[in-house]
Amino acid sequence: MTKLKSKPILKRASHILSQEFSTPKDIAWAWVTLLMSQEEEKRDSEEKRYSRIAEFEAWILGLDLPRDSKNTQVHTVSPEAVKNAARNVFEWPHEYIFEAPASPNHPDTKVTYKDTITKPILDALKDASGSDDRAALMAILEGYAKEGKEPFANITTEGIEWKGSHWSEGDKYNLLTLKSLNNRLANLRKKELI
């Protein structure tokens, strides 16, 4: 299982999911790899891992998404389209933060994060005095959304919708739920940002 947490593997998986087009098999592999790296240290068997990859691949193929017209040799689809379809069916692994922010050498230096939702989560933790009570953090984040703070869009029954870093008018929103917040907190701990 430690192999799944190595940076080169996580970077490769993240890169596949951020490309314009990838094969369903690669998307499934990247998706399962990132999801399993977010989970607690449960030692899943290789067999279970491969069956999960096969399950996701079959599901992606079943979506019958538009193919890349430029590449007729290989069946490739957009990971973004898969992500949008997965939104209410399966959990989609969130964007990883690989580089810990550079420590500011000046009080005015701005720290930037790869993912637009990271800063609001860190702000909510500060507002909650470092408590990682998920319900309390969700309530604080909902407060930010009601105030119209970026990157939030709407509050729905499923969770809080927010705009990703490449969001433009007409795109689908990402969804923050108690479960995905839990995963993000675990990832921030791993990156020693909290």
Category from helices, strands and their pairing: mainly alpha
| Structure annotation, total helices | 7
Give the percentage of residues in beta strands.
5-15%
**What is the gyration radius calculated from CA atoms?**
18 Å
The order of strands across the largest sheet is 1-2-3
Largest sheet: 3 strands, antiparallel
Order of helices and strands: HHHHHHEEEH
Terminal CA distance reads 24 Å
Report low-confidence residues grouped into runs of 5 or more.
Answer: 99-104, 106-110
Q: Average pLDDT, to the nearest integer?
A: 78
Q: Considering DSSP H and I runs of 4 or more, what fraction of the residues is helical?
A: 40-55%
Global geometry: globular
In total, the number of strands is 3
Task: Describe this entry's structure for a reader.
By secondary structure, this protein is mainly alpha-helical. Helix content is 46%, strand content 5%. The chain has a 3-stranded antiparallel beta sheet with strand order 1-2-3. The longest helix is centred in the first third of the chain and has 18 residues, at 46-63. It is globular. The chain starts with 6 loop residues before the first helix and ends with a helix.
Essential attributes:
5% strand; 194 residues; mainly alpha
Care to give the gist of this entry?
The chain is mainly α and 194 residues long. It has helices spanning 7-18, 24-38, 46-63, 79-86, 118-127, 134-146, 178-190, and strands spanning 152-155, 160-162, 174-176.
Write the SSE topology:
Layout: H1 7-18, H2 24-38, H3 46-63, H4 79-86, H5 118-127, H6 134-146, E1 152-155, E2 160-162, E3 174-176, H7 178-190
Antiparallel strand pairs: 1-2, 2-3
Helix pairs in contact: 1-2, 2-3, 5-6
